[in-house]
Amino acid sequence: MLDRQHLSILREVDRLGSLTAAAERLNVSQSALSHTIRKLEERYGVAMWEKDGRNLRLTEAGRYIVGLAQRVLPQIERAETVLSDYRHGQRGSLRIGMECHPCHQWLMGVTKPYLLDWPDVDLELTTSFAFGGVAALTGYEIDILITPDPIEMPGIHYLPVFDYELVLAVPVDHPLALKRYAEPVDLLDETLFTYPVPPERLDVFTHFLVPANCRPRHHRNVETTEMMLQLVAAGRGVSAIPNWLVRREAAELGVRPVSIGQSGIRKSIHLGLREGDDTLDFISGFLATSRRMSA
Q: In whole angstroms, what is the distance from residue 171 CA to residue 109 CA?
């Protein structure tokens, strides 16, 4: 019978590339590890790996089991963590994933009151996903996904927490500062600063520039909001950024927001979670705090 031990062994062999390293990682002898997989191979009549010089190479069957392990083991490990939390009197451990660079400032405003309300909950934040945010959510790597671009999938639902407008931040003495809204041709001679996201996932490209067959003269990625606005204030270019972030820094830096297109680009921040998870008290508590702080 295929069980968790088989999945763990093949996952570690795939990660580490050798039986010795996998055995050390799993705290078993190499002979015991080999014997376990040999019995599995005999039961199903297929090989899990084969020698490749001094290394091991997974067979097609082995790669299939590793794929299964990558989906199933995180869910088992998550369940064990939750059960351990309950055993030790904790309410839970909340893991939040974020697909939205400027959402960091919003999240910090939610985190403080949430941690005060839920002192026994551990909170973890990640912005790195091997297969994307939704895959991390469905794979039980995270519990809540913060995203401005919800992807509909069975078993996942989204809660909108606040609306905003994506705008251009421009220096107050820039010609665009005199306009009510920017047109695509206005960016042809500009340097456009954006967060480090592929253009095909940036609304300023997909909803504004690409339909008009326009591109900025230069496109530069900037990691932080603070640096982006400093560059804009220094006259180095313009940036596509949520309006609430521009308003917060406008007076001090000398920048102002300009709508992107006549109708503007309206967005919402959503919290994605697995169906049924909102019945967990520490998750429903985070949703309630998010709504309260965004009102």
A: 27
Q: Calculate the alpha carbon distances from 101 to 132, 157, 269 in Å.
A: 14, 21, 12
pTM: 0.65
Which of the following CATH numbers is that of domain 86-161+268-294: 3.10.450.350, 3.30.70.270, 1.10.10.10, 3.40.190.10?
A: 3.40.190.10
88 pLDDT band (50/70/90 cuts)? low
Quote the CA–CA distance of 246 and 249 in Å, as a whole number: 5
Could you give the CA distance from residue 145 to residue 22 in angstroms, rounded to a whole number? 32
Dihedral-angle region of residue 272 (phi above 0 means left; psi in -120 to 50 means alpha; beta otherwise): beta
**pLDDT tens-digit map of 173-184:** 999 999 999 999
Nearest by Cα to 106 from 254, 281, 270: 270
How many CB atoms are located within 10 Å of the residue 283 CB?
21
